[in-house]
Structures are given as structure tokens and as C-alpha cells.
Design a protein that fits this description.
6-stranded antiparallel β-sheet, 2 helices
């Protein structure tokens, strides 16, 4: 779905050379930011006849009061935008959009950025061949003020189902977005372990 202002908005592409950007500049005020994941459900190249790929978007969060949790379709942990954790996943899409406006979106209320300590946005291949380059996935952050921030998930390496995409950290002077694009063999629990979130996990499905 195209939102007003998306087409003409400047884009900052985070890469290894430019790994971070300050999301909230001094004096600026943000509203509800969207973090959108799109991908191609039909693998390209030699995998074009493989089973359609189903990617999921989610995040680990830690609030300033120490509360920690996960927002994701698995386990129906869709979150809330009106109450803690002030993050909401809009739904579970199986198609990725394929250029038709689909995909999955996290809504993050940044009206009071001081409520957050850190947010780790991640994506994982729920179903299909674990090949990120073939899935052609992109995560884009749409803040209500300032340029949108884009990160491509296009690793040629195969096997890893999880990708820690971006880490949003409150450093007191603003919320900084750090490009991670860290491919991890395992599950969300392994993302937790890699970033020291310290949560307890149990198996579940969506």
C-alpha cells in the first residue's frame, strides 16, 4: 500500500560504509513510524521452481522501565500501539507483495522516544528455501519526519533463516538506527542470544 509522501520522500540507504543514522534530530518530533518488509515470494534464478518463500517481520524490544518482549506473528504476539510496548504488527502476509503493495509492517509510536531503550527489528524465513538473495527482501523505515531509511537483505550465503536487520538505540540525544543485516543460523532465540536480550523462549507456531 502506498502512503501519501512515500514517493517523493528522500531515501537514506544504510550500508557497511554508512551504517547508522540519527532518526530523531534535535528539535524534531516523530509520530508513528512504519517499518515495512517486502520480498519476492517466488524465488529467482535456479530456485524459481522452489516452494514460495514466506518471510516474517518482527522485533525484540526493551523499554526504559526494563520491560522486554517480542512482537511477531508467531504466537500471535502482534503487540499494541496504544499501550506498552507501543509497537504493533499489522498482520501476517504470505506473498511479500511482489510489487503489489503487500508485505508486512511494524508500527512504532515514537511520539515519546524516551519510553524505548532499544528495538531490534528482525526478519526470518518462516517457510521456503533459506536463500535471502533469491527472496530479494528490503526493509524500509518510514518516519513521520525526515528521510526514509532502507536496508537490503541480499546475502548470497545460504542456510541462515534469521536476519537481525536494524537496531534502534536511545542514546539520550536521539534515537539512532544502526544497520545490522546480521544473518543468524537458528531461530529468534538465537537472535536474542546474539544481542544479549535475556528472554525465555518456547516453541510455538502461527
Amino acid at each position: 500500500m502506498t502512503h501519501p509522501g512515500d514517493v517523493d520522500m528522500a531515501t537514506v540507504t544504510l550500508s557497511k560504509a554508512t551504517p547508522s543514522v540519527n532518526l530523531i534530530e534535535p528539535g524534531a518530533r516523530q509520530g508513528v513510524m512504519r517499518a515495512h518488509l517486502r520480498w519476492s515470494s517466488r524465488p529467482r534464478g535456479l530456485l524459481r521452481r522452489a516452494k514460495p518463500v514466506d518471510l516474517d517481520l518482527g522485533c525484540l524490544y526493551e523499554l526504559s522501565d526494563g520491560d522486554k518482549g517480542v512482537v511477531q506473528a508467531v504466537g500471535n504476539n502482534f503487540g499494541s500501539i496504544d499501550d506498552a510496548p507501543y509497537i504493533r504488527l499489522d498482520g501476517d502476509d504470505r506473498t511479500g507483495g511482489d510489487g503489489n503493495g503487500g508485505g508486512e509492517t511494524l508500527h512504532i509510536d515514537l511520539t515519546r522516544p524516551e519510553l524505548f531503550r532499544r528495538i531490534l527489528i528482525f526478519a526470518f524465513i518462516y517457510d521456503g528455501v533459506p536463500n535471502w538473495a533469491a527472496a530479494d527482501a528490503v526493509v524500509t523505515l518510514f518516519p513521520t519526519e525526515g528521510p526514509r531509511v532502507e536496508m537490503s537483505l541480499d546475502s548470497p550465503s545460504r542456510g541462515a533463516r534469521c536476519c537481525a536487520v536494524a537496531l534502534l538505540e536511545n542514546r539520550g540525544s536521539g534515537l539512532v538506527v544502526n544497520r545490522e543485516v546480521n544473518y543468524i543460523n537458528g531461530t529468534q532465540r538465537h537472535i536474542d542470544e546474539a544481542y544479549g536480550w535475556g528472554m525465555r523462549w518456547h516453541s510455538t507456531t502461527k
